[in-house]
Amino acid sequence: MTDRTEQSIVINADADVIMAVIADFEQYPQWVSAAREVEVVKTGPTGRAQHVRFVLDAGVLKDNYELSYDWSADGHSVTWDLISSDLQTAQHGRYSLVQQAPGSTKVTYELTVDLAIPMIGQLKRRAEKAITDAALKELKKRVED
Question: Could you give the 3-state DSSP secondary structure of residue 52?
Answer without folding.
Answer: strand
